Amino acid sequence: MKHDLEVSGMSCSGCEMLIKEALEELDGVLEAEASHTTGRVTVECDPLKVTLAAITETIRAEGFTVKA
Known about the structure:
Blueprint: E1 2-8, H1 13-24, E2 29-35, E3 40-45, H2 52-61, E4 65-67
Antiparallel strand pairs: 1-3, 1-4, 2-3
Pfam families: HMA
Protein name: Heavy metal transport/detoxification protein
InterPro entries: HMA_dom (IPR006121), HMA_dom_sf (IPR036163)
């Protein structure tokens, strides 16, 4: 399953890597990409192993805001 999220607070490639690495540590996340230029995070995951709530909480825990 693929999720495309609007995320605010990313200002550089370091922010992108922080989010990508945090998400890819979650069991069930197959791939994560973040772009500070578009303010989007795309996550490919196994919905039987990880929930959207866990993904958004991980992004928030890194200091970013996930917009509804």
